[in-house]
Amino acid sequence: MKINILRENNVKYTKHKIGEEALYSFQVLWYAKSVAFIDKPLYNYVQRGDSQSHLKVDDPWGGVALAMKDKVQEMDLYPKFANTINAFLLTASAVSANCLANNYPFSSYLTEVKRCRRRLSEVIDKKYPIDKNNMSGKARIVGWLLQHGFYLLIWVLAKLKAMRK
User: Fold this and answer.
1) CA-angle at 72, arms to 32 and 95, nearest 5°
2) What does the angle CA 105 – CA 95 – CA 58 come to, to the nearest 5 degrees?
3) From the CA atom positions of the chain, what is the Rg in Å?
4) What is the DSSP letter of 51?
5) CA 151 to CA 133: how far, in whole Å?
6) How many Å apart are CA 52 and CA 21, to the nearest integer?
7) Terminus-to-terminus CA distance in the chain, angstroms?
8) What is the chain's pLDDT, residue by residue, as a tens digit (165 residues)?
9) Is the pTM of this model over 0.85?
């Protein structure tokens, strides 16, 4: 990528521990005049057991999703991407609900997942639809369960998935 894209548009990585590349990549792709992809591996991606992506956190993507919403609004692009931002917020909440189920016993999970659902209802923009076509199947299912208060089912599914590992 050209360094002037970064400098002219003040594009930088965020300080988020997980998902920090999302905002960076969005801005680079938005400001680029053209984009090309090379259809061969150029580096070897290694996931270490102690990497940031393996941290036991309750809401790994929530901060990044909110930062993306703020950045898109700051760039005056919000109406164009509002439905995608809603999808990102719902996906982040679904991921959080799954993490909460894995991190807490049921009684504590229940308190936390209800808080997660309240946060989601506060940040999702009800004036725009949710772009479910750009969500994974799992995020669509868990997101729907979360929105409709099926907390026990989310918890059971998370536990069953954890048992399969």
Assistant:
1) 105
2) 50
3) 18
4) S
5) 24
6) 13
7) 38
8) 788 889 999 898 888 888 888 888 899 999 998 888 888 888 777 777 766 666 688 999 999 999 999 999 999 999 999 999 999 999 999 999 999 999 999 999 999 999 999 999 999 999 999 999 989 999 999 999 999 999 999 999 999 998 887
9) yes
